[in-house]
Amino acid sequence: MVRFVLLGTGSSDLYPSPWCGCDFCAFAKEEDDKRNWRNFSCALLYPDVLIDCPPDLPHSALKANVELYKVRHLLITHSHHDHFSTDPLLLRRSVLWAKKTPHKDVLPLPDLQPLIVYGNAKVSEKCKAFLKEVSTKYDLQIEIQKLRPFEPAKLGERTKVHPVKAEHCRDEEALLFVLERDEFSIFYATDTGWLSEETFDYLRQFSLDLVVADATFGLAPATEEHMNLEQVRKLKERMVNEGILKENGKFVATHFSPHWTPKHNLLTKALEEHNIIAGYDGLWLILES
Fold first, then answer.
1. CA dihedral 201, 203, 207, 209 (to 10 degrees)
2. Which neighbouring-strand residues pair with 161?
3. What pLDDT, in 10s, does the model give residues 13-42?
């Protein structure tokens, strides 16, 4: 069994946006359904592989009841602030602080476990600058490994990551990730516009059990950098037709912007006829043989 949890499913605006008074944001604030409240997008291949590190990651993890101290591998899609903030990494210093001030009535604290951050050149530079800044005070036990599209890397004994090209930004090489664990394979595809033929060609080697795909623009027209609900439906159809996604594989939409995406119950209705799951914060996806 493999477990994959969506910690956050919102766009860079958050959902609802605190600076917006559109109808969708207003409806989300008025509804009791907390699935309408979305943090910045990130996900966890439980328990040890985290995808993206937004500034609100600690709150998303607590909300989903997952333990970040178990994470050993952090995959970063690109350097934009809503996908890679160093603030949550700085919180690793709390373990170091606690060990420096022991108390006789407190149980022994575990050591801070190493963490490897994987990403493109811009992510690597951002992480190196952060570690250099804090190095005089803390050893946060963080290593950096650069990833390149279509060059797989091993993450421990059970897991392999295949970085592929996202269609997202012009100033850096944004990445999407296929994760293989045991006999299961997962494709996490946000932020991105419609995939390139080069990426489709690479994906044909897999028979995916789960796809999590960008649907930022909801009911509005898609752009070169983000998809909408119509493209998400077409993506699933193509993946099934070409054998990239198993016929019984799960397909989930994520990364919703509040301005163009209706509240959760309406979003579910718009997607259910295509057998697509409307993602929400704290959604656990279980893959079983």
1. -150
2. 153, 179
3. 999 999 998 888 988 888 788 999 999 999
Closest CA to 92 of 112, 107, 72, 108: 112
Indicate the pTM of the whole model: 0.96
What's the CATH number where 23 sits? 3.60.15.10
Instruction: Using pLDDT thresholds of 50, 70 and 90, give the confidence band for residue 174.
Output: very high
pLDDT digits (tens, 9 = 90+) for 82-140: 999 999 999 999 888 877 776 767 777 788 999 999 999 999 999 999 999 999 999 99
Helix, strand, coil share of the chain (percent; to 5):
25, 30, 45
- Residue 65 Cα to chain centre, angstroms: 16
Alpha-carbon distance of 174 to 120, in angstroms, equals: 7
Note down the domain range covering 133. 2-98+109-287
**Mean of pLDDT over the chain:** 95
* Structural contact between residues 75 and 50, judged by C-beta atoms closer than 8 angstroms: yes
CB distance 16 to 25 below 8 Å: yes
Domain count, the chain: 1
User: Residue 104 domain-assigned?
Assistant: no
Q: φ and ψ at 53, to 5 degrees?
A: -140, 75
Per-residue pLDDT, 154: 97
Q: What is the distance between the alpha carbons of residues 203 and 92, in angstroms, rounded to a whole number?
A: 35
Burial call 14-50: b when 16+ CB within 10 Å, e when fewer: bbbbeebeeebbeebeeeeeebbbbbbbbbbbbebbb
For residue 70, being part of any structural domain is answered with yes
